[in-house]
Amino acid sequence: MKTTTNKEQLWIDISSRLQDVFGDHAYRGWLRFLEFEQDTGAKIILSVPTAFIRDLIKSKYLDGIKSLWQDVCKDIQAIDIIVKEKDQNQDKEEDQTTQPASKFGSKVSLETLPGNTDGLDPRFTFDNFVVGKPNELAYAAALRVAEYEKVNFSPLFLYGGVGLGKTHLMHAIAWQLHNMPKKRRVIYLSAEQFMDYYIRSLRHKTMIDFRDMFRNVDVLMVDDIQFMSGKDSTQEEFFHTFNALIDQKKQIILSADKSPSDLTGIQERMRSRFGWGLVVDIHPTTYELRLGILQAKAERIDIDIPNDVIEFLAHKITSNVRELEGALNKIRARAMLIGGPITLEATREALKDLLRANERLLTVDEIQRQVAEHFNTRISDMKSSKRLRSVARPRQVAMYMCKNFTSKSWAAIGEEFGGRDHSTVMHACKKIEELKISDPDLNEDIHILERILSA
Ligand code: ADP
Ligand code: MG
Fold first, then answer.
1. Are 177 and 120 spatial neighbours (Cβ–Cβ below 8 Å)?
2. β-strand partners of 251
3. Cα separation of 178 and 15, whole Å?
4. Residues β-bridged to residue 46
5. 322 CB less than 6 Å from ligand 1?
6. Which of 438, 430, 431, 436 lies closest to 449 in space, CA to CA?
7. Is residue 387 within 8 Å of 439, Cβ to Cβ?
8. 265 near 415, Cβ under 8 Å?
9. pLDDT given at position 418
10. Rounded to an integer, what distance in angstroms lies between the CA atom of residue 449 and that of residue 452?
């Protein structure tokens, strides 16, 4: 029998925030494997199933995780991550569609390579996808690809704003293919993960295995390809993977937040190839679609919400589907905790913050614009790699403002500042917090900007 320690309780809370803080891909790819192991006083020990995941988390997310801990428990000095192998996974080995990773052999522990269905969200199926005008084309194209009779258009390129269902559709395709009698080799991963594997393979001199795996699949899906922007050697490698698969008439599915031609920082030869197959965009939601999604989701999580509340939400929460889901979850949590009927009044109260955020509709663009104007710099500098203090400081202020005025994660904010890492954003926020105390001028700047932005 194991008893739950205090710190373990804290971990339950912290781990439930990882997805929000670091973004979907980091969470699905690596962070969700973290488990609480031990509390040695000043040091917390967490575990993951493989050395690969451990190294990756240590190099990219450890500081962030540590700072989440320190937010709730000041006396934590260090976090360590150990490898704790799981041995119940043997039965999966037989299913070769889901285990392209075994190709890597035992030389390197890359056994968590994509292709395994446990990287897929079980809720992201075609059945759970509500179709409306803004997404009907994307839906139809995804369904067609998932039938996989023969490859009609490759690549399928899906693009659209955040939270509109791109990842949902890609997972739905992967599930569908997985459930078909004829097994296909399917790999789904984010562009960020592709880069991580690529770098790891370079370092461990396993490029042959890497290529062997990525160039021998039936379906390759790479999510959020805009992440490759500015990452030239990753693009180079992906270019060859892409060509090899297209030559063999295999199916490629890509997603991005912009159309191929708008993908700055991606080589021209790639952008033009992205348009070779079928390019479809998912438009922002309409009132009708939001209504449909709310009804479907309320039914699925089994709560009875009166029509006027549903209509109110569809009307007010217009940014994206993820926020609609967040609203429903909040309403449900409130009903469960406090009880009482779900009324318009109770909804307004429960969703105060969310509604305010949607009303103000502050975008990262707008924040960057206001901050740039205030400091007399250019918006392009916000996204540039310049490190001059006169550019870097306003950039840090803008990041800090984004954290406070939008609901975006560190990772998502970093993306909008020229593809910077979540840790850069985190560092910026810390730095500005410090400067607010030590530098009265900057503190004044911050106050002025806060006033402008909340006007
Ligand atoms: P994106 O990848 O485009 O940023 P996601 O696919 O992650 O967006 O979608 C965000 C959330 O909204 C997910 O929980 C997803 O299930 C949900 N969602 C988006 N579009 C729909 C839809 N048409 N029907 C049902 N759920 C949707
Ligand atoms: Mg996505």
1. no
2. 219
3. 29
4. 36, 81
5. yes
6. 436
7. no
8. no
9. 93
10. 5
Q: Are strands 278-282 and 78-83 parallel, antiparallel or unpaired?
A: unpaired
Q: What is the identity of the amino acid at 393?
A: R
450 contact partners, CB below 8 Å, separation of at least 6 = 401, 404
Residue 267's pLDDT is 95
Burial status of residue 199 (CB atoms within 10 A of its CB: 0-12, 13-18, 19 or more) = middle
User: Does the structure show a pLDDT above 80 at 103?
Assistant: no
Query: What mean pLDDT is reported for the chain?
Result: 86
- Please identify, by atom number, the ligand 1 atom nearest to the C-alpha of residue 130: 24
Q: Which atom of ligand 1 is nearest to the CA of 296?
A: 25
Q: What is the largest CA-CA distance in the chain?
A: 67
Query: In this structure, which residue's CA is closest to atom 1 in ligand 1?
Result: 163
Tell how far CA 441 is from the center of its chain.
Answer: 36
How far from 348 is each of 107, 342, 351, CA to CA, in Å? 57, 10, 5
The residue-averaged pLDDT of 139-147 equals 95
Q: What is the mean pLDDT of residues 39-65?
A: 88
* Residue pointed to by tokens 């009903």: 335
Could you tell me the distance, in angstroms and rounded to a whole number, from the CA of residue 297 to the centre of ligand 1? 11
- The 8-class DSSP code of residue 93 comes to G
Would you say 228 and 238 are in contact if contact means Cβ atoms under 8 Å apart? yes
Q: Tell me the two tokens of residue 251.
A: 């199916």
Q: Is the CB of 134 under 6 A from ligand 1?
A: no
Instruction: Give the separation between CA 194 and CA 370, rounded to whole angstroms.
Output: 35
Banded pLDDT at 360 (limits 50, 70, 90): low
- CA 125 – ligand 2 centroid, Å: 14
Asked whether 189 and 29 are in contact (CB, 8 A), the reply is yes
The helix (run of H) or strand (run of E) holding residue 36 is strand 35-39
SS3 track for 186-229? EEEEEHHHHHHHHHHHHHCCCHHHHHHHHCCCCEEEEECHHHHC
Q: Distance between CA 295 and CA 304 in Å, rounded? A: 10
Cα distance between residue 210 and residue 228, in whole Å: 18
Neighbours of 427 (CB within 10 A): 18
For residue 124 and ligand 1, the question of a CB distance below 6 A is answered with: yes
Q: 145: CA distance to ligand 2 center in Å?
A: 18
Helices in 215-351 by DSSP H: which ranges? 232-247, 268-274, 287-300, 307-316, 321-338, 344-350
Range with lowest mean pLDDT among 82-91, 136-145, 212-221, 333-342: 82-91
Question: Per the structure block, which two tokens stand in for 206?
Answer: 């396993």
Q: Is the CB of 167 under 6 A from ligand 1?
A: yes
Tokens 């192991």 identify what position? 37
Taking a C-beta distance cutoff of 8 angstroms, is the pair 369, 402 a contact? Answer: no
